[in-house]
Amino acid sequence: MLASTRNAIRTQSRLARNFSASSVASAQSLKERLAELIPKEIEEVKEVRAKYGDKSFGPNTVDQMYGGMRGLKGLVWEGSVLDADEGIRFRGLTIPETQEALPKAPGGQEPLPEGLFWLLVTGEVPTEEQVKSLSAEWNARGEIPDFVKELIDRCPRDLHPMTQFSIAVNALNHDSAFAKSYAQGINKKDYWQPTYEDAMDLIAKLPQIAGRIFRNVYGDGKMPAVDASKDYSANLSTYLGFGDNKEFVDLMRLYITIHSDHEGGNVSAHTGHLVGSALSDPFLSYGAALNGLAGPLHGLANQEVLRWIQKMQSVVGENPSDEKVAEYVWSTLKSGQVVPGYGHAVLRKTDPRYTAQREFALRHLPNDPLFKLVAQIYKIVPNILLEAGKAKNPWPNVDAHSGVLLTYYGLNQQDFYTVLFGVSRAFGVASQLIWDRALGMPLERPKSFSTAHIKKMFEGK
Ligand SMILES: CC(C)(COP(=O)(O)OP(=O)(O)OC[C@H]1O[C@@H](n2cnc3c(N)ncnc32)[C@H](O)[C@@H]1OP(=O)(O)O)[C@@H](O)C(=O)NCCC(=O)NCCS
């Protein structure tokens, strides 16, 4: 591991102080390690609140209330923090550091998402053995109930895959350990335990749900068997029909890792956390998060990007000049639409998740015509958005690149792309839900005002 990575782990994550302890006790399961960490973390939160509880994060303006609460500091999120210029850090690690630090599959170059989940939950980099144990545990939990299979099978083929995904995830609540324990009168100190069980079940079952939707909508509905000795991304790829393509499987590992978490304020993460605060179980909470992810300004942008690029191709043809591409971008803006894949509510530089995918493309598909067009667009769009003068961030986000990679390997069913985003985002939302319950986070209930009230408060002052 790089010295810088070690430093990042040591200095930027509170929990990472326990890194060496975890490595020694490598036979420990994730749940056992979590059980050790929770009392320490509860004490740490108590200390932070006692010392800094009355500290202010700054003013709260009327513009922020009308402006989608941009920059309003109102959430605690343990798994990741987003810096406007640098991008995301997972428990203190940047994306390149995460790629370097986390265990890989034999022959693979990209981090295993199992390791990312361990990192998000504990703040620690797991051993290979720990990662393998998570692969095995998720494989063992992966089967979905028959009635959920039937629900998916009964969806019309032209029902958007994200709607089908949301229906199936919500229905998993039938077997929620949390809902059952709550009905039996569980002590609130123990909420995290059934939440953990549900979180693990949720993540484990997503490949089968996603695969079934994919095969129903785009194939003959027959599900292949998976190899229980393989990792999460390999089995997800098998369900999608790409299990034999090693590069695609490695792409899935990268994809799931980088789409997993983007601090707490984005629509899907915040929705999962908000709904969970009512003690709705992780399936209901994540089902709600998925409905937010299905919006075109959020996760659905990755389907929109490819559509937009393909439309552009049909207008500008093969190997277009920069002028032709620019003309097309301007026509999008002039018709009152956004350029999908560009801009961000928080980021102000190129999204490192875009860069990680670009580097993957440079390694594996440098001469692909669609990749070349995406790279050409990257040179042109930021200047146009700057010239147009509205977007606060003219740079590409994560969604500007994912479609071209998936299409290259043959997964060109664009309507399905956000489902893959949804599989990944569960890692971040589920890990936070465990901590929400472990730390006793209360019902979320911010204050709102009417326009008439705001006028009355400030008129003449
Ligand atoms: C992500 C997004 C919703 C952030 O919204 P935001 O925080 O309100 O962004 P800004 O503050 O920069 O928006 C200011 C203006 O610029 C516009 N703008 C922002 N990004 C733009 C883009 N990619 N293309 C065209 N216009 C854009 C906004 O629509 C807004 O216009 P308005 O004043 O007429 O309402 C926005 O950048 C966007 O719509 N991007 C395209 C969709 C996308 O890629 N989503 C995935 C995000 S990860």
Automatic annotation (TrEMBL):
InterPro entries: Citrate_synth-like_lrg_a-sub, Citrate_synth-like_sm_a-sub, Citrate_synthase, Citrate_synthase_AS, Citrate_synthase_euk, Citrate_synthase_sf
Domain of life: Eukaryota
One annotated GO biological process: tricarboxylic acid cycle
Xref: Gene3D superfamilies: Citrate Synthase, domain 1, Cytochrome P450-Terp, domain 2
Key words of the record: Transferase
Active site as annotated: H298, H344, D399
PROSITE patterns xrefs: CITRATE_SYNTHASE (PS00480)
Database matches in PANTHER family: CITRATE SYNTHASE, CITRATE SYNTHASE, MITOCHONDRIAL
Listed name of the protein: Citrate synthase
